[in-house]
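hiii, so i know i said id send this last week but things got crazy w the move. better late than never?? heres the sequnce for the chain we talked about at the cafe, plus the structure i predicted for it. fair warning i was half asleep when i ran it
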Amino acid sequence: MTRVGRLFLFIAFLSAGNLSVAQTDSSLRFYTGDLGEQDFELSEVRVRRSCTCSGVCCCAKKQESVYTGNRFVSTDILLSRDPSIELIRRGAFALEPVLNGMSTDRMNITIDGMKIFGACTDKMDPITSYVEPNNMKSVAVLQGSAGALFGSSIAGTLNMETQGASIRPSMKWTGEVGTGYNSAAKGISHLYALNRSGAKWAVSSNGVYRKFGNYRSGHGERIPFTQFEKWNNSFSAKYMPRERQILRLDLIIDEGYNIGYAALPMDVLYAKARIGGISLEQFYQKGFFERGEFKFYANRVKHAMDDTDRPDVPMHMEMPGLTETIGSYADLRYKRSAHKGILRLDLFRTRSRAEMTMFPAGELPMFMLTWPDIVKQSAGIYLRDVWELRSGNRIGVNFRFDFVSSQSVDQFGIAQASVFNQNIGETDLRFLRNAGLSYTAKLKQNWKYWVTCGFVERSPSTTEQYAFYIFNAMDGYDYIGNRSIQNEKAWQSDLGLEWKKRRITWTLTTFHYRIQDYIMGKIESDYDAMTIGARGVKMTTNLPSALLTGARTILSYQVNRNFELNGRASYTYGTIPGGDPLPMIAPMRNVLSCRWTGNKMFLQLETEAAAGQNRVNPDFGEQTTPAYTLIHFRSGYTVKTPKGRLILNGGVENLFDRHYRTHLTWGGIPQPGINAFLNVNYAFN
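okay and structure toks below
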């Protein structure tokens, strides 16, 4: 066993005697659109009715579908079950989510509402890689202007809510242990969860350890540089100093090692995150406010790219990165007469620094700052009000305003940027505005529709504004940031329709973005590339406009007590001035599943298909992608014991060993072929 594996087991052993997590009624819910108004039903994940508070607090019932859980899947694969989310694949680890055709620069990704920023200039560490399903309670997918609850953005927000400790005096000790195997990559996964509860307090701990080798593709070949090893531990404590009041402390420690990226010229030596927060929740019985949350948080992310294990490297390089963030927020929920809403105040400060050291043979090392020690500070206010009309229809309005400042605080980095006549040492101040309007109404007895429209705005990312020769392996260009680039703005709208009758539910949602000052790299022929073999240099610039539009649909049919049919499909279309396709837009994709559930077991047959993508932009390294169809089979069996239950999950993915790649896979790297998996876990109480 490796050093990391022994460390994981040692931590789990210590935690068993002191800390613990209740997973026996944990839930993983997906919300899409307006938070709390719609539930996205996710197969393979057990979704239960759950409570947002503990102890004496009361919670409203939610309509949810129940599925057999599988917490051995990775967070990014779990997210991809939402039809509005696709994944950019550079390897087999830390896949980057894309929301409605827009990547992480255009969306917020938060954990329990906390701002966290990746430390890799090549986006090898999206925030989704630092939390595990074993510790997740719900995922909120907020589209467009609704995502302004957690910060200014264009696409919206993914907020991952962690499980935390559970106060349940009737169940003092609860927990879970499990192990799993994956044949395509010869991967192993172990997990545990423990919870200890008193009358007014609870402490918990849970963790996951994964080690996967290079996976096997549909042609039977091992794809090099797709291996990874990681462990994740979370700790949580809750205390109720008085009725309807909860004090909560959370800590996440995540570390990954020896992570391969087949589509990139470098791998990852390590990726480490330390994420912590302390909050006070108050549930009011009288007055204007229903609930208040006040939180302070801090996190630190370290990441190091390295090419030591790559063959035929023309010049060895080391590229460490670091982000440090501290912040706080106050979140107040109110209800008055026919109105209910949210008032939220946010403050955060983040520091980003990334280095590159090149070691040419027989010469002195060369050093540069690819992120020249950037300090960004933000203060924001958000307000949302929903007016319940007498007819049962609803009108919602929301506003958000942010003040953002950024600058480089490193003299070496300031001197670097001066060669491009940019003074990045001066403070850059920006004011961001977001606003949205929504209307939800019933058409007839079984029909409902909703319309949203809004204006959304975001400031440039650290890379877009301050990058210094960051190589993009997709298009082969070195990128240089532009400090004076304009904010990106968009007019956004959604139209949704739902039909619900007895055992059938069908929803259709269309979306449309008219983006102004679209941020994109533009070739600068006057500059020479720094990276060996690069095609040239691109500098970040604003295009006059871009268009994104598309649709997604979900169908659920409960045939009878035992049989259920589910389907979901999505399509996105994007274009830039001149009619050229917007790069990295996935083709139409759909997933259909048929599930039989008995008293102790379930069987599920699933098809996953994507159309070919011929609308590509060669200037950004895209190539056409052929269509593919995959067949998956999954099953599970549960054995109840006097003090718990034993759960077995297994199946075969890509049953016919198809050789394929998704359109958002960099470098045309083929995806895993036939993959048999088996997971065993025991939950006790």
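btw The chain has a mean pLDDT of 87. thought thatd interest u
miss u guys!!
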